[in-house]
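Appendix B. One record, verbatim.
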Amino acid sequence: MTVPSAPGVLLVLDGWGHAPASPANAITLAHTPTLDALAAKHPTTYVEASGEAVGLLPGTVGNSEIGHMVIGAGRPLAYDSLLVQHAIDAGALRRHQPLTDTLRRLADEDRALHLIGLASDGQIHAHVEHLGELLAIAATHRVPRVWIHAITDGRDVADGTAPDYLRRIEEIAAEAGTGRIATVSGRGYALDKSGDLGLTRPVTEAIADGGGRRAESAAVAAARAPRGDVWVEPTVVERTVVEPTVVADGAVADRAVADRAVADGDAILFTNFRSDRIQQLADHLLDHLAATGRTVSALSLAVYDTRTPIPALVQRADASGGLADELERHGLRSVRIAEQEKFEHVTYYVNGRDERRRPTEEHVKVIGDGPPDYTARPEMNLDKVTDAVVAAAAREDVALVIANLANIDVVGHTGDAEATVRATEFTDHAVDRIRVAAQAAGRWLLLVGDHGNAELMARPGPDGGPRPYGGHTTNPVPLVVVPAPGAVLPEELPAGGTLADVAPTVLTLLGRPSGPAMTGRSLV
């Protein structure tokens, strides 16, 4: 069948996963007449968005970063977590020259190593078990002091599990024979990426200077968080012996705090493999240390896009030759639209982690009027996003609108099932408005999730009862193609697809061939 070409809209419903109806499935609990009708009337399939299908380790949940990268690349991409694990399995980190040189220097000069990263096994931003290899390498090189600055999660994993992960870190350190938790900070502070330095600053002060709250143990620090693991206030874990000492620039602090503070000549290794949420902290911390006269060696487990280049232990996979490159090659104009939370995903990540804005691209970032409250306002700024999509779809010079509707995922991460149901219903209404606009402009509409989330809002807790869950899943995601007016598509889409099939499908609908780098197939 020859598919007639037409302009279109690629609409990513973030966190829109597929699973049987259940009391924990916010998608099926929601009233979604538009999504239900589109799936019933138009070609629909379910595509894999996790694990090996997209370039992750087997059984690993999908995430927005790899989801949008694979959507854009038209092929699975070895994700940073997979590349890090391969490096560990091959012993490559133990032979990594910049790392081993740094550790030898620390041993020779009696300086400390500081490990900073997310303390969970959610595998979205980090994996706590990677600490085992890093601590073992530090022990081999006899680094005299290794301080762990733990960032509690509560988003990629269930809220309330921070004490379990902190205990696991202590076990890993005991097995390696080195490493102690120096500070504990919630990811709401440490992994902010909105530019709110009021959140980042107390984390920097705790890590760099030993400033802020005190707790006698990591578990106590985590237990003091009335708003959950995400919002553990940056806390310094103290020892019992306290004596005066000099930290920097003649400043005097308690010895117990100073031991954990970052001193001139120390080294920092950021252990997150995903870069976007730790970059703000990395930049702010390194700027602060430089401003206070402390020269440190900085390394990162994977490549970060920080202002100051940080040498990485593991490099990235090549993501070029994807949808953005093909659109540019054919001179097809695209408009990218999303709220601030997901703006990088429809630009930077869809473009293969390429920061260039191509001449054929327009970027529309929708910013709210005030601080977000996702449970109180699950609609977020969806009306503004929808207005922008409708306006772009009406333009004859635009071949493709690429937009992300963030609500289902962002609200789903709160673990609040009722709010996520409402977010899904707001999304359904927005999809209806976009569908009407696309049809009026003679466009096709392709809807797809980037990973699962809201279809699983609870998991069994320690007592066997349901426990709120706001993390991602390994479930497939729906893909629906609404043809342009008058166009005829196959009645059924092939099964067994993945997110790598999205870009080839989009290019087919635009009347263009798949790019030579793409291994995905067109589903139409």
